[in-house]
Amino acid sequence: MSSDTFTTALFLITAVIAAGVLISAIFPVVYQMSGTFSSASHESDQRLRTDFKIVLAVANQSQYARVWIKNTGSEQVPVADIERSDVICGSTGDFGRMTLVPSGSSTLPNGYWTYTLSESKVNSYWDPGETLEIDVNTNTLNTDGSPNYFQFTLPDGIWRSNQFTSNAP
After folding, report:
1. Number of independent structural domains in the chain
2. Residue 34: per-residue pLDDT
3. Whole-number pLDDT of residue 165
4. 160 with 69: CB under 8 angstroms?
5. How much is the pLDDT for 12?
6. Are residues 40 and 107 in the same domain?
7. In angstroms, rounded to a whole number, what is the distance separating the alpha carbons of residues 167 and 100?
8. Is 53 helix (H, G, I), strand (E, B) or coil?
9. Of 3, 68, 77, 104, which has the maximum CB count within 10 A?
10. 33 and 66 share a domain?
């Protein structure tokens, strides 16, 4: 009888130790996964709130394009994100990534872009409802009525593109 009690006690102690080892092995993984899911959820929420639309893209001269983009989302976009964005422009099949013109520069060299915010209030954000005006200088624009390509991509991967034709003489 005492051997049965001793055996049962050993099995009980072994079960408690095994449960503790299992919990200590699984708990960190579950905790790490919850952090990953939370982060992914936050990123997804931010992407859903950030939205913009290309209103108009024109090129009236042989190498200059002007594009107006409206912030149609409910999230403010920091100016720093605009300045880190990718602007791609040129004729279909011959476009390239443009470089933001350095601040203080009065000219727009070939292969560069600049921006202006038409703000109702002066702050460091592209607010919902505001329009972003982008000027691009690239010598790869078609002036014969063939399509040109423009794409604007924010650092978080949200992008919009547009095809337009040039009205240059």
Report:
1. 2
2. 67
3. 86
4. yes
5. 82
6. no
7. 25
8. strand
9. 77
10. no
pLDDT of 24 strictly over 70:
yes
CATH number, domain of 122, equals 2.60.40
State pTM to two decimals.
0.72
Residue 86, token pair as written in the block:
């990718």
Give dist(CA 13, CA 7) in Å, integer. 10
Q: Tell me the C-alpha distance between 99 and 41, whole Å.
A: 32
Instruction: Clarify whether residues 83 and 129 are in a common domain.
Output: yes
Residues 45, 69 within the same domain: no
Copy the structure tokens of residue 109: 């060299």
What does the alpha-carbon distance between residue 169 and residue 166 come to, in Å, rounded to a whole number? Answer: 9
95 and 149 assigned to the same domain: yes
Chain centroid, CA 130 distance in Å? 18
Question: What would the pLDDT profile of 116-127 be if each residue is shown by its tens digit?
Answer: 998 766 788 999
Amino acid at 66: R
- Integer CA distances (angstroms), 20 to 28, 30, 51, 55, 161, in order: 13, 15, 48, 61, 55
Spatial CB neighbours of 63, under 8 Å, sequence gap ≥ 6: 110, 137, 138, 139, 141
At 41-88, the pLDDT tens digits run: 666 666 678 899 999 999 876 789 999 999 999 999 999 999 999 999
Bridge partners for 84 per DSSP = none
* Same-domain status, 110 and 150: yes
Residue 36, domain extent: 1-49
